[in-house]
Amino acid sequence: MSAYSFTVFDELTEDKGQSYPLQRGQTLLKNMLIHKISTHSKCGGKAICGHCRVKIISAQSHCNKPVAEEKIHLSEEQIQQGWRLSCQLYCLKDITIYFPTQDEITHSSSFP
Length: 112
Ligand code: FES
Hints:
The protein has four helices and five strands, in the order ββαβααββα. It has helices at 28-34, 68-73, 76-81, 102-106; strands spanning 5-9, 18-21, 53-58, 83-85, 95-98. Strands 2-1-5-3-4 form a five-stranded mixed β-sheet. It is globular, with a radius of gyration of 13 Å. It binds FE2/S2 (inorganic) cluster. FE2/S2 (inorganic) cluster (FES) binds next to loops.
């Protein structure tokens, strides 16, 4: 049993959120896939597509620092706002994220 969890807010869960056990040592993308959460990933977690982005709502300090590959897909402002690539994001404790729609990702200002 996992001692920590990640909570996902999206357009379906709205203000309630849905919590899942967190497997530390796995990326957030992998954790989402383990729990059969549909993702927008197009590159399988190789930091190429930029479609796996999520926004950390709380506990950003519980995560690894953004890696160089994330800075290709996300502006400094977006990173400051909490946006990360879930395929590069490792969480050490409880975390809450916002999972955007594909439309939000496509219309993001720094999306290539
Ligand atoms: S899954 Fe493609 S960049 Fe993360």
